[in-house]
Amino acid sequence: MTRTLSGKVVLITGGSRDFGAFLAETLADQGADIAISYVASAARAEAEAVVEKLKAKGVRAIAVQGNLVADPTLDATAYDRQWMVNVLGSVTITRAAAQKISDGGRIVFIGSGQATRAIVPGVADYAGTKAAISGYARGVQRDLGRRNITVNVVQAGIMATEMAAEAAENFPQAVIDMHPISRIATLEEVAGAVSYLVGPNAAYTAGTIIDVSGGVLV
Question: 1-66 is classed in which CATH architecture?
Answer without folding.
Answer: 3-Layer(aba) Sandwich (3.40)
